[in-house]
Amino acid sequence: MQRFQLYINGQFEDGGGxxxxxxPATGEAWADMPEARKAEVDRAVNAAEAALWSGPWANMTxxxxxxxxxxxxxxVAANAARLAELETRDTGKIIRETSSQIAYVADYYRYxxxxxxxxxxAYLSIDKPDMDVWLRRxxxxxxxxxxxxxxQLFLSAVKLGPALAAGCTVVVKASEDxxxxxxxxxxxxxxxxxxxxxxxxxxxxxPSCGSALTRHPKVAHIxxxxxxxxxxAVVRNSAENLASTSLELxxxxxxxxxxxxxLESAANAQIAGIFAAxxxxxxxxxxxxxxxxxxxRFLAILKSRAExxxxxxxxxxxxxxxxxxxxxxxxxxxxxIDASIAAGAKLVTGGRKLGDKGFYYAPTVLDCDHVTSPSVxxxxxxxxLSVLSFQTEEEAVRLANDTQFGLASxxxxxxxxxxxxxxxxxxxxxxxxxTYRAVSPIxxxxxxxxxxxxxxxxxxxxxxxxxxxxxxxxxxDDPIPDPFVMR
Length: 487
Ligand code: NDP
What we know:
about 475 residues, alpha/beta, Aldehyde Dehydrogenase, Chain A, domain 1, 2 domains, 6-stranded mixed beta sheet, 23 strands, about 40% helix, binds NADPH dihydro-nicotinamide-adenine-dinucleotide phosphate
């Protein structure tokens, strides 16, 4: 079995315990993982705090920090194939997706490398004579970055990039499911030459490792990606250290198709929107909201596309959909689909486990029109599309917003004015019009409601990792008068 280590204070170590990581394509253990417990969390946070206040990182210019980030970006690009293979092996996400995503992760580090010396303070035109007053932007402090198992290199880059550009130090916690790529990435941090303690990479279980990290008194900011239930626990923990939080959570994103849309093109986007990453994507377009007059036609296209998908070995470049990451996830999907069918939903395609090894589930389309189907409300994090139809634009808006989440959304129409009305009325952090699933380091990303708060990506994300210090300087040489002598 391949063996991985934690990375704490510039050293690789075994951790307080060990656990096996399961290959989702076979259901069998393939790697031996280190477990960080409270003692390792403590050492990682203490190392991050020490590096924040003294030593080479604390004294580096922003331009030098940017250069280190550029070096890291180059190393990610050079090692993308190896990291992609590890991610595929450990999470089941198919190799064509991990390869292209990790190559793009390098661009996220490049973007924040360039931003490092463009984080500016401000000069204030103060209402008093002989005073210079300005705001310094300083690193917010030690950051706890917590990611779920899907896309760990990508989800950590959107935290590490801006945090390091801003001068923070970081403890990254990889998920216990599929931590291999992030633990391996620590080797690139080391090779790039980040001083000891600046970035620490650990993994372990939520209640012991994650909880100890998020309530640690020296943590100043928690950048969390995961489910809303865990986010609530993280926010409760932050009541102990008063750390600020940014929360990137789940979704049940509406994919709205009007009858005037290019249906072939919309169907391609829908197939990618729900079946890419085997549906294990926070932005999965998992609720199709389709104009009734084209519903049958659109479902016929989706059914034939879904049934033609090549399902197979995640490490095979030809595979288009791989297994789910865990048996736990597959069990939730099965249970919810059974309950949805019992409530009256009709299977258009899929709805069953595949194969006798690994955690495969068939790409599934479920017609939920006029039914109270649990599949419409629950984030399934799997290849399951629930279909609802509408007669009017008003109804489309109502259905799109009928969710506790508000992460992403898609609108397909050729009608420009309608597109603009929909953009305004949909309650979601991202609206894609006649496209879906586009992301960029330049564009902020985040959600409303149960999908979280705060934005990742873009310039503002780097500012979120800073705090301001207000500086008052008296510029007069006149002595300060005795305050107790009346004039
Ligand atoms: P979880 O919320 O279960 O886990 C997320 C992370 O939190 C993991 O590292 C987990 O560790 C850790 N954790 C668990 N319990 C605690 C705790 N008490 N204190 C601190 N940390 C803890 O999410 P999943 O792994 O199930 O991931 C899927 C979820 O993530 C979905 O809801 C998905 O939509 C969301 N997501 C959101 C994205 C976004 O950008 N908005 C992007 C990708 C996913 P461990 O794994 O060891 O339990």
